[in-house]
Structures are given as C-alpha cells and as structure tokens.
Amino acid sequence: MSLTPTALDLAQPTTRAVVSALRSEQRVSVGGRRSPLRLTYVSDAFVRLDAGTSAGVQPIRDHRLCFAIGRHVGNAVLRNRCRRRVRAAFGDVVRDRDVPEGGFLFRPTAAIATMPFDSLVELVTSLIDELHKKLVPAGSPL
Length: 142
Hints:
The protein is of the alpha+beta class. The chain contains 5 helices and 4 strands, in the order H-H-E-E-E-H-E-H-H.
C-alpha cells in the first residue's frame, strides 16, 4: 500500500514537515559515513507546516524522532528492533543531558541490533555532543 501525499499529510503532518525541512538546507548532520548510526537534526525554527490551512512555521515543542532504515539493514523484525533500541537510547540521553528540541532523523545500520545497549547509549551521547558542537560556536558562552 502506497500513501498518496494527501494521505501522508493527514496521517503524519509533523513527520511530513520534518522530512520537507530535511530536504531543504536547514539541517545539521553528524556521524560519519562509516558510523553505525548517523543523525540529522532540524531545528524547530525551520519545520514548516505543509498540511492544513495554516501556513508558515510550526515550532516543535519536543523531540521528534524519525528513522530512515532501508531493507539492506534486514527484515522488518530487525529494522523494528533497531528503531526501538535507538528510541530507548535517545530517551536515556534526553533524561541525562540538555538536548535541543526539534526533529531528529536517525539512520542506523544492522550493527545497532546486536550492539550492547550501553555502547549504543554512548554512541547516541557522542552524536548529541557532536551535534551540540556544530550548533553552538566554540566561542559562545553556553
């Protein structure tokens, strides 16, 4: 079953807005090409509301997680396991650290499914730290 753009707007307007912002140039990506987990961040200031009658910018008041997991990662069970593990690890990091609000696109590989959870939390923490370094210039008082 494929979703038409209007059905997608009605089903997930926030995710659709995050994806449209990812296509634009207002994003920050961290995690190298060989990393088992890559992260792309979209600030809440750049997420546009495409669906409905409202136009303009809709700020995201929390963390929106999106996942891009291709079939090369494995079957649906493995892809869902990766999604659940990354979501849980991100939740642990949010409880311990100051994470900016906005949209987060995670692109995990198959290694995430078998990685020890403590290592996964460390990996997500390092990605958030790397993201923070890119978002806040080195000389800024924060």
